Known about the structure:
Blueprint: E1 21-26, H1 32-46, E2 50-55, H2 58-75, E3 82-85, E4 90-93, E5 98-103, H3 107-112, E6 120-126, H4 133-142, E7 153-158, H5 166-171, E8 183-185, E9 189-194, H6 204-211, H7 216-223, E10 238-241, E11 253-258, E12 266-274, E13 279-288, H8 293-304, E14 308-312, H9 316-324, E15 328-332, H10 338-347, E16 350-354, H11 358-366, E17 369-371, E18 377-381, H12 387-395, H13 412-417
Parallel strand pairs: 1-7, 1-9, 2-5, 2-6, 6-7, 10-16, 11-14, 13-16, 14-15
Antiparallel strand pairs: 3-4, 4-5, 8-9, 11-12, 12-13, 17-18
Helix pairs in contact: 1-2
The structure holds adenosine-5'-triphosphate and magnesium ion.
Amino acid sequence: MPSQVVINDVYEPHLDNAARVQIFYGGSSSGKSVFLAQRCVLDVLQGGRNYLVCRQVGRTVRKSVYNEINKAINDAGLRGLFDANKSDGVITCTNGYQILFAGLDDTEKIKSITPERGVITDVWVEEATETEPDAIKQLLKRQRGGDEATPKRLTLSFNPIYKTHWIYQTYFAPTVWADDQTQYTSPDLSILKTTYLDNQFLTAADRADLENEQDEYYRDVYTLGKWGVLGDVIFKNWRVDDLIGMVNQFTNHRNGLDFGFSSDPAALAVTHYDKARKTIYIYDELYERGLTNDALAPEIKSRIGKQYVYCDSAEPKSIQELNNLGVNAVGVKKGKDSVLFGIQWLQQQTIIVDAKCIAARNELGVYHWKKDKDGNSLRIPVDKNNHLIDATRYAYEDMGAGWADVDDLGSVEGYRSRWQ
Length: 420
Ligand SMILES: Nc1ncnc2c1ncn2[C@@H]1O[C@H](COP(=O)(O)OP(=O)(O)OP(=O)(O)O)[C@@H](O)[C@H]1O
Ligand SMILES: [Mg+2]
Protein backbone atom coordinates (compact mmCIF):
# COMPACT_ATOMS: atom_id res chain seq x y z
CA MET A 1 0.00 0.00 0.00
CA PRO A 2 1.37 3.49 -0.81
CA SER A 3 2.86 4.93 2.40
CA GLN A 4 0.72 8.08 2.25
CA VAL A 5 -2.54 6.13 2.55
CA VAL A 6 -3.82 6.34 6.11
CA ILE A 7 -6.96 4.37 6.77
CA ASN A 8 -9.24 4.63 9.79
CA ASP A 9 -8.69 1.49 11.92
CA VAL A 10 -12.32 0.39 11.84
CA TYR A 11 -12.24 0.04 8.04
CA GLU A 12 -8.83 -1.62 7.69
CA PRO A 13 -10.18 -5.23 7.84
CA HIS A 14 -12.56 -4.38 4.99
CA LEU A 15 -9.85 -3.67 2.46
CA ASP A 16 -10.06 -7.29 1.29
CA ASN A 17 -13.62 -8.04 2.34
CA ALA A 18 -14.95 -10.42 -0.33
CA ALA A 19 -18.67 -10.55 0.58
CA ARG A 20 -21.00 -10.28 -2.40
CA VAL A 21 -23.03 -7.38 -0.95
CA GLN A 22 -21.32 -4.99 1.44
CA ILE A 23 -23.03 -2.31 3.43
CA PHE A 24 -21.19 0.58 5.04
CA TYR A 25 -23.67 2.74 6.86
CA GLY A 26 -23.93 4.93 9.90
CA GLY A 27 -23.66 8.46 11.15
CA SER A 28 -22.40 11.52 9.42
CA SER A 29 -18.64 12.08 9.06
CA SER A 30 -17.80 8.54 10.08
CA GLY A 31 -15.28 8.17 7.25
CA LYS A 32 -17.35 5.91 4.98
CA SER A 33 -16.90 7.85 1.77
CA VAL A 34 -13.20 8.48 2.27
CA PHE A 35 -12.54 4.81 3.01
CA LEU A 36 -14.53 3.50 0.06
CA ALA A 37 -12.74 5.93 -2.25
CA GLN A 38 -9.38 4.79 -0.86
CA ARG A 39 -10.30 1.13 -1.30
CA CYS A 40 -11.45 1.75 -4.85
CA VAL A 41 -8.18 3.43 -5.80
CA LEU A 42 -6.04 0.73 -4.17
CA ASP A 43 -8.04 -2.09 -5.80
CA VAL A 44 -7.76 -0.61 -9.25
CA LEU A 45 -4.08 0.12 -8.75
CA GLN A 46 -3.49 -3.49 -7.78
CA GLY A 47 -5.15 -4.58 -11.03
CA GLY A 48 -7.83 -7.13 -11.88
CA ARG A 49 -10.66 -4.89 -10.71
CA ASN A 50 -12.77 -2.30 -12.47
CA TYR A 51 -15.19 -0.13 -10.54
CA LEU A 52 -18.52 1.35 -11.44
CA VAL A 53 -19.26 4.15 -8.99
CA CYS A 54 -22.80 5.48 -8.94
CA ARG A 55 -25.40 7.55 -7.25
CA GLN A 56 -29.05 7.75 -8.11
CA VAL A 57 -28.83 11.13 -9.81
CA GLY A 58 -26.16 11.42 -12.50
CA ARG A 59 -25.64 15.13 -12.09
CA THR A 60 -24.62 14.68 -8.44
CA VAL A 61 -21.91 12.15 -9.28
CA ARG A 62 -19.30 14.61 -10.46
CA LYS A 63 -19.54 16.84 -7.44
CA SER A 64 -19.39 14.01 -4.94
CA VAL A 65 -17.88 10.59 -5.64
CA TYR A 66 -15.86 11.68 -8.67
CA ASN A 67 -14.14 14.37 -6.60
CA GLU A 68 -13.79 12.08 -3.61
CA ILE A 69 -11.93 9.47 -5.68
CA ASN A 70 -9.67 12.05 -7.26
CA LYS A 71 -8.89 13.35 -3.81
CA ALA A 72 -8.02 9.82 -2.69
CA ILE A 73 -5.69 9.49 -5.71
CA ASN A 74 -3.97 12.80 -4.90
CA ASP A 75 -3.73 12.13 -1.15
CA ALA A 76 -2.15 8.75 -1.87
CA GLY A 77 0.46 10.45 -4.06
CA LEU A 78 -0.72 8.42 -7.06
CA ARG A 79 -1.69 11.21 -9.48
CA GLY A 80 0.95 10.11 -11.96
CA LEU A 81 -0.64 6.65 -12.26
CA PHE A 82 -4.21 7.73 -12.97
CA ASP A 83 -5.63 9.66 -15.85
CA ALA A 84 -8.94 11.36 -15.03
CA ASN A 85 -11.39 12.40 -17.71
CA LYS A 86 -14.15 14.38 -16.06
CA SER A 87 -16.38 14.91 -19.08
CA ASP A 88 -16.56 11.17 -19.83
CA GLY A 89 -16.64 10.23 -16.14
CA VAL A 90 -13.75 7.79 -16.46
CA ILE A 91 -10.54 7.40 -14.48
CA THR A 92 -7.97 5.07 -16.01
CA CYS A 93 -4.98 3.58 -14.23
CA THR A 94 -1.75 3.05 -16.17
CA ASN A 95 -2.36 -0.71 -15.77
CA GLY A 96 -5.48 -0.36 -17.94
CA TYR A 97 -8.05 -0.91 -15.18
CA GLN A 98 -10.70 1.75 -14.76
CA ILE A 99 -13.08 3.56 -12.48
CA LEU A 100 -16.30 4.43 -14.32
CA PHE A 101 -19.02 6.77 -13.07
CA ALA A 102 -22.72 6.89 -13.82
CA GLY A 103 -26.08 7.96 -12.42
CA LEU A 104 -28.59 5.17 -11.94
CA ASP A 105 -31.11 7.52 -13.56
CA ASP A 106 -29.22 7.03 -16.82
CA THR A 107 -30.39 3.48 -17.48
CA GLU A 108 -28.98 3.37 -21.02
CA LYS A 109 -25.51 4.27 -19.82
CA ILE A 110 -25.72 1.78 -16.96
CA LYS A 111 -26.66 -0.99 -19.40
CA SER A 112 -23.92 -0.25 -21.88
CA ILE A 113 -21.01 0.79 -19.69
CA THR A 114 -17.96 -1.45 -20.09
CA PRO A 115 -14.36 -1.09 -19.04
CA GLU A 116 -11.55 -1.32 -21.59
CA ARG A 117 -10.05 -4.31 -19.88
CA GLY A 118 -11.85 -7.16 -18.06
CA VAL A 119 -15.28 -6.76 -16.48
CA ILE A 120 -16.84 -4.58 -13.80
CA THR A 121 -15.97 -6.44 -10.62
CA ASP A 122 -17.05 -3.75 -8.20
CA VAL A 123 -20.06 -1.52 -8.00
CA TRP A 124 -20.20 1.13 -5.32
CA VAL A 125 -23.49 2.95 -4.81
CA GLU A 126 -23.01 6.05 -2.69
CA GLU A 127 -26.03 7.44 -0.77
CA ALA A 128 -27.83 4.21 -1.62
CA THR A 129 -31.01 5.16 0.26
CA GLU A 130 -31.83 7.32 -2.78
CA THR A 131 -32.19 4.24 -4.96
CA GLU A 132 -35.03 1.85 -5.73
CA PRO A 133 -34.69 -1.93 -5.17
CA ASP A 134 -35.08 -2.61 -8.90
CA ALA A 135 -32.06 -0.49 -9.78
CA ILE A 136 -29.91 -2.44 -7.33
CA LYS A 137 -31.20 -5.75 -8.71
CA GLN A 138 -30.20 -4.61 -12.19
CA LEU A 139 -26.72 -3.78 -10.95
CA LEU A 140 -26.30 -7.24 -9.47
CA LYS A 141 -27.35 -8.75 -12.80
CA ARG A 142 -25.02 -6.43 -14.64
CA GLN A 143 -22.10 -7.95 -12.75
CA ARG A 144 -22.69 -11.50 -13.98
CA GLY A 145 -20.07 -13.21 -16.13
CA GLY A 146 -16.37 -12.63 -16.47
CA ASP A 147 -13.56 -14.14 -14.48
CA GLU A 148 -14.97 -16.18 -11.58
CA ALA A 149 -11.69 -16.04 -9.65
CA THR A 150 -12.13 -12.38 -8.73
CA PRO A 151 -15.06 -12.00 -6.34
CA LYS A 152 -17.74 -9.57 -7.50
CA ARG A 153 -18.83 -7.01 -4.97
CA LEU A 154 -21.68 -4.58 -4.64
CA THR A 155 -21.08 -1.95 -2.00
CA LEU A 156 -23.80 0.32 -0.62
CA SER A 157 -23.03 3.33 1.57
CA PHE A 158 -25.54 5.64 3.23
CA ASN A 159 -26.97 7.24 6.36
CA PRO A 160 -29.80 5.13 7.82
CA ILE A 161 -32.66 7.55 7.18
CA TYR A 162 -35.61 5.46 8.35
CA LYS A 163 -36.38 1.93 9.33
CA THR A 164 -39.22 1.51 6.88
CA HIS A 165 -36.75 1.93 4.02
CA TRP A 166 -36.45 -0.99 1.58
CA ILE A 167 -32.74 -1.39 2.39
CA TYR A 168 -33.60 -2.08 6.02
CA GLN A 169 -36.34 -4.49 5.01
CA THR A 170 -34.09 -6.31 2.54
CA TYR A 171 -30.75 -6.55 4.29
CA PHE A 172 -31.30 -5.81 7.96
CA ALA A 173 -34.32 -7.96 8.71
CA PRO A 174 -34.45 -8.51 12.48
CA THR A 175 -32.83 -11.94 12.22
CA VAL A 176 -29.67 -10.36 10.83
CA TRP A 177 -29.49 -7.11 12.68
CA ALA A 178 -30.03 -5.91 16.24
CA ASP A 179 -30.12 -2.17 16.84
CA ASP A 180 -26.98 -2.18 19.01
CA GLN A 181 -24.96 -4.30 16.58
CA THR A 182 -22.05 -2.82 14.61
CA GLN A 183 -20.98 -5.74 12.37
CA TYR A 184 -22.45 -8.63 10.45
CA THR A 185 -20.47 -10.96 8.21
CA SER A 186 -21.42 -13.79 5.88
CA PRO A 187 -20.20 -14.70 2.39
CA ASP A 188 -23.26 -13.03 0.86
CA LEU A 189 -23.55 -9.98 3.03
CA SER A 190 -21.39 -7.87 5.27
CA ILE A 191 -22.60 -4.88 7.24
CA LEU A 192 -20.48 -2.34 9.09
CA LYS A 193 -21.99 0.45 11.13
CA THR A 194 -19.77 3.41 12.00
CA THR A 195 -20.17 6.79 13.65
CA TYR A 196 -18.08 9.94 13.96
CA LEU A 197 -16.35 8.25 16.93
CA ASP A 198 -14.75 5.83 14.46
CA ASN A 199 -13.17 8.65 12.48
CA GLN A 200 -9.85 9.63 14.01
CA PHE A 201 -9.43 12.54 11.58
CA LEU A 202 -12.34 14.68 12.70
CA THR A 203 -11.72 18.07 14.28
CA ALA A 204 -13.12 18.95 17.70
CA ALA A 205 -15.51 21.39 16.01
CA ASP A 206 -16.89 18.65 13.74
CA ARG A 207 -17.45 16.44 16.76
CA ALA A 208 -19.10 19.21 18.75
CA ASP A 209 -21.48 19.91 15.87
CA LEU A 210 -22.67 16.34 15.86
CA GLU A 211 -22.81 16.07 19.64
CA ASN A 212 -24.86 19.24 19.93
CA GLU A 213 -27.68 17.99 17.73
CA GLN A 214 -30.86 18.46 19.76
CA ASP A 215 -33.44 16.86 17.52
CA GLU A 216 -33.96 13.22 18.41
CA TYR A 217 -34.37 11.98 14.86
CA TYR A 218 -31.34 13.80 13.46
CA ARG A 219 -29.30 12.78 16.49
CA ASP A 220 -30.19 9.11 16.04
CA VAL A 221 -29.45 9.08 12.32
CA TYR A 222 -26.54 11.48 11.84
CA THR A 223 -24.80 11.45 15.24
CA LEU A 224 -25.44 7.89 16.39
CA GLY A 225 -25.90 6.18 13.02
CA LYS A 226 -29.10 4.41 14.09
CA TRP A 227 -31.93 3.61 11.71
CA GLY A 228 -34.26 6.55 12.13
CA VAL A 229 -37.73 6.19 13.47
CA LEU A 230 -39.86 9.06 12.33
CA GLY A 231 -42.55 10.07 14.73
CA ASP A 232 -44.38 13.13 13.72
CA VAL A 233 -43.70 13.68 10.03
CA ILE A 234 -45.43 16.74 8.63
CA PHE A 235 -46.46 15.46 5.21
CA LYS A 236 -48.20 12.14 4.82
CA ASN A 237 -50.29 13.31 1.87
CA TRP A 238 -47.77 12.50 -0.87
CA ARG A 239 -46.66 9.68 -3.09
CA VAL A 240 -44.20 8.96 -5.85
CA ASP A 241 -45.28 8.31 -9.42
CA ASP A 242 -43.81 8.28 -12.89
CA LEU A 243 -45.03 11.58 -14.32
CA ILE A 244 -43.02 11.62 -17.51
CA GLY A 245 -46.01 10.79 -19.70
CA MET A 246 -48.13 13.53 -18.13
CA VAL A 247 -45.80 16.51 -18.35
CA ASN A 248 -47.24 17.63 -21.71
CA GLN A 249 -50.64 18.04 -20.12
CA PHE A 250 -49.34 20.20 -17.30
CA THR A 251 -50.47 23.75 -17.99
CA ASN A 252 -51.05 25.31 -14.59
CA HIS A 253 -47.42 25.97 -13.82
CA ARG A 254 -46.25 27.00 -10.39
CA ASN A 255 -42.57 27.21 -9.69
CA GLY A 256 -40.77 28.15 -6.51
CA LEU A 257 -37.16 28.81 -5.64
CA ASP A 258 -35.39 28.74 -2.30
CA PHE A 259 -32.03 30.48 -2.40
CA GLY A 260 -28.94 28.81 -1.01
CA PHE A 261 -25.25 28.67 -1.68
CA SER A 262 -22.75 26.95 0.60
CA SER A 263 -24.33 25.05 3.46
CA ASP A 264 -27.86 25.19 2.04
CA PRO A 265 -28.59 24.25 -1.55
CA ALA A 266 -30.47 26.35 -4.05
CA ALA A 267 -33.74 24.49 -4.53
CA LEU A 268 -36.19 24.84 -7.39
CA ALA A 269 -39.59 23.13 -7.37
CA VAL A 270 -41.27 22.83 -10.77
CA THR A 271 -44.93 21.99 -10.31
CA HIS A 272 -48.37 21.81 -11.86
CA TYR A 273 -51.55 22.44 -9.88
CA ASP A 274 -54.72 20.53 -10.57
CA LYS A 275 -57.09 22.82 -8.76
CA ALA A 276 -60.20 20.67 -9.16
CA ARG A 277 -58.50 17.70 -7.56
CA LYS A 278 -56.41 19.77 -5.13
CA THR A 279 -53.36 17.95 -6.42
CA ILE A 280 -49.85 19.30 -6.75
CA TYR A 281 -47.55 17.55 -9.19
CA ILE A 282 -43.85 18.12 -8.50
CA TYR A 283 -42.37 17.01 -11.80
CA ASP A 284 -38.93 18.57 -11.89
CA GLU A 285 -36.45 20.01 -9.44
CA LEU A 286 -33.02 21.47 -8.96
CA TYR A 287 -31.16 20.97 -5.71
CA GLU A 288 -27.57 22.04 -5.71
CA ARG A 289 -24.98 23.73 -3.54
CA GLY A 290 -22.33 26.14 -4.71
CA LEU A 291 -24.23 27.72 -7.61
CA THR A 292 -23.70 31.46 -8.06
CA ASN A 293 -26.65 33.27 -9.64
CA ASP A 294 -24.75 33.18 -12.94
CA ALA A 295 -24.71 29.39 -12.80
CA LEU A 296 -28.19 29.10 -11.28
CA ALA A 297 -29.95 31.11 -14.00
CA PRO A 298 -29.31 28.71 -16.92
CA GLU A 299 -30.29 25.76 -14.71
CA ILE A 300 -33.61 27.43 -13.97
CA LYS A 301 -34.19 28.46 -17.58
CA SER A 302 -33.50 24.94 -18.87
CA ARG A 303 -36.32 23.69 -16.64
CA ILE A 304 -38.97 26.41 -16.85
CA GLY A 305 -37.94 28.69 -19.71
CA LYS A 306 -39.75 32.01 -19.45
CA GLN A 307 -42.24 30.88 -16.82
CA TYR A 308 -42.37 32.82 -13.59
CA VAL A 309 -40.67 31.48 -10.52
CA TYR A 310 -41.61 32.66 -7.02
CA CYS A 311 -38.79 33.28 -4.57
CA ASP A 312 -38.11 34.51 -1.09
CA SER A 313 -38.53 38.31 -1.24
CA ALA A 314 -35.90 38.66 1.50
CA GLU A 315 -33.29 38.35 -1.28
CA PRO A 316 -34.06 41.23 -3.67
CA LYS A 317 -30.50 41.36 -4.96
CA SER A 318 -30.56 37.74 -6.11
CA ILE A 319 -34.01 38.21 -7.62
CA GLN A 320 -32.76 41.22 -9.58
CA GLU A 321 -29.67 39.32 -10.73
CA LEU A 322 -31.75 36.39 -11.92
CA ASN A 323 -33.96 38.80 -13.85
CA ASN A 324 -30.91 40.36 -15.46
CA LEU A 325 -29.92 36.85 -16.50
CA GLY A 326 -33.28 36.22 -18.16
CA VAL A 327 -35.18 34.42 -15.40
CA ASN A 328 -38.66 35.69 -14.59
CA ALA A 329 -38.11 35.65 -10.83
CA VAL A 330 -40.58 37.32 -8.49
CA GLY A 331 -40.42 37.79 -4.72
CA VAL A 332 -43.24 36.56 -2.53
CA LYS A 333 -44.05 38.41 0.64
CA LYS A 334 -43.89 36.24 3.68
CA GLY A 335 -46.58 37.29 6.10
CA LYS A 336 -46.71 36.46 9.79
CA ASP A 337 -47.01 32.71 10.33
CA SER A 338 -46.54 32.13 6.62
CA VAL A 339 -44.54 28.96 7.23
CA LEU A 340 -47.26 27.34 9.32
CA PHE A 341 -49.98 28.62 7.06
CA GLY A 342 -48.17 27.32 3.99
CA ILE A 343 -47.60 23.93 5.60
CA GLN A 344 -51.25 23.65 6.60
CA TRP A 345 -52.36 24.50 3.09
CA LEU A 346 -49.97 21.98 1.57
CA GLN A 347 -51.22 19.34 4.00
CA GLN A 348 -54.70 19.74 2.53
CA GLN A 349 -53.51 18.91 -0.98
CA THR A 350 -52.44 15.65 -2.55
CA ILE A 351 -48.80 15.88 -3.61
CA ILE A 352 -47.51 13.61 -6.36
CA VAL A 353 -43.77 13.61 -6.89
CA ASP A 354 -42.04 12.33 -9.99
CA ALA A 355 -39.70 9.42 -9.28
CA LYS A 356 -36.70 11.39 -10.44
CA CYS A 357 -37.24 14.23 -7.94
CA ILE A 358 -35.01 12.75 -5.27
CA ALA A 359 -34.62 15.90 -3.20
CA ALA A 360 -38.38 16.44 -2.97
CA ARG A 361 -38.83 12.81 -1.97
CA ASN A 362 -36.06 12.99 0.63
CA GLU A 363 -37.41 16.14 2.20
CA LEU A 364 -41.08 15.18 2.22
CA GLY A 365 -40.04 11.88 3.82
CA VAL A 366 -38.30 13.34 6.85
CA TYR A 367 -39.65 16.86 7.44
CA HIS A 368 -41.07 16.67 10.96
CA TRP A 369 -42.34 18.63 13.96
CA LYS A 370 -40.09 19.63 16.82
CA LYS A 371 -40.61 17.95 20.18
CA ASP A 372 -40.37 19.48 23.64
CA LYS A 373 -38.20 17.86 26.30
CA ASP A 374 -41.02 15.53 27.31
CA GLY A 375 -41.38 14.25 23.79
CA ASN A 376 -44.56 16.15 22.95
CA SER A 377 -44.87 17.46 19.42
CA LEU A 378 -44.73 21.22 19.00
CA ARG A 379 -46.29 23.01 16.05
CA ILE A 380 -42.84 24.10 14.93
CA PRO A 381 -41.12 22.30 12.06
CA VAL A 382 -37.49 21.28 12.55
CA ASP A 383 -35.55 23.72 10.40
CA LYS A 384 -33.73 21.12 8.27
CA ASN A 385 -34.36 19.38 4.97
CA ASN A 386 -36.89 22.00 3.99
CA HIS A 387 -35.39 23.66 0.91
CA LEU A 388 -37.54 22.04 -1.74
CA ILE A 389 -40.46 22.24 0.62
CA ASP A 390 -39.89 25.97 1.07
CA ALA A 391 -39.59 26.37 -2.69
CA THR A 392 -42.93 24.60 -3.04
CA ARG A 393 -44.44 26.84 -0.39
CA TYR A 394 -43.27 29.91 -2.29
CA ALA A 395 -44.85 28.57 -5.47
CA TYR A 396 -48.15 28.37 -3.59
CA GLU A 397 -47.63 31.16 -1.06
CA ASP A 398 -50.63 33.25 -0.22
CA MET A 399 -53.08 30.67 -1.52
CA GLY A 400 -55.75 31.95 0.83
CA ALA A 401 -55.37 35.52 -0.38
CA GLY A 402 -56.90 35.25 -3.80
CA TRP A 403 -54.59 33.85 -6.35
CA ALA A 404 -55.51 30.26 -5.67
CA ASP A 405 -57.95 30.92 -8.48
CA VAL A 406 -55.33 32.06 -10.93
CA ASP A 407 -54.78 29.65 -13.78
CA ASP A 408 -51.17 29.07 -14.69
CA LEU A 409 -49.22 31.25 -12.33
CA GLY A 410 -46.18 30.48 -14.43
CA SER A 411 -47.55 32.47 -17.38
CA VAL A 412 -47.46 36.23 -17.92
CA GLU A 413 -51.27 36.40 -17.67
CA GLY A 414 -51.24 34.42 -14.49
CA TYR A 415 -48.57 36.59 -13.02
CA ARG A 416 -50.47 39.80 -13.92
CA SER A 417 -53.80 38.59 -12.66
CA ARG A 418 -52.26 37.84 -9.33
CA TRP A 419 -51.94 41.56 -8.72
CA GLN A 420 -55.40 42.57 -9.88
N1 LIG B 1 -8.59 8.24 6.19
C1 LIG B 1 -8.77 9.54 6.33
N2 LIG B 1 -7.74 10.39 6.24
C2 LIG B 1 -7.91 11.72 6.40
N3 LIG B 1 -9.09 12.30 6.65
C3 LIG B 1 -10.15 11.52 6.75
C4 LIG B 1 -10.08 10.11 6.59
N4 LIG B 1 -11.30 9.60 6.72
C5 LIG B 1 -12.12 10.64 6.94
N5 LIG B 1 -11.45 11.81 6.97
C6 LIG B 1 -12.01 13.14 7.22
O1 LIG B 1 -13.29 13.01 7.78
C7 LIG B 1 -14.29 13.66 6.98
C8 LIG B 1 -15.57 12.85 6.99
O2 LIG B 1 -15.36 11.62 6.36
P1 LIG B 1 -16.38 11.07 5.25
O3 LIG B 1 -16.81 12.15 4.36
O4 LIG B 1 -15.75 9.87 4.66
O5 LIG B 1 -17.57 10.65 6.20
P2 LIG B 1 -18.93 9.90 5.78
O6 LIG B 1 -19.06 8.77 6.72
O7 LIG B 1 -18.93 9.61 4.33
O8 LIG B 1 -20.00 11.01 6.16
P3 LIG B 1 -21.47 11.26 5.57
O9 LIG B 1 -22.35 10.22 6.17
O10 LIG B 1 -21.78 12.61 6.11
O11 LIG B 1 -21.38 11.19 4.08
C9 LIG B 1 -13.65 13.80 5.62
O12 LIG B 1 -14.15 14.92 4.93
C10 LIG B 1 -12.18 13.96 5.94
O13 LIG B 1 -11.91 15.30 6.27
MG1 LIG C 1 -20.21 10.29 2.79
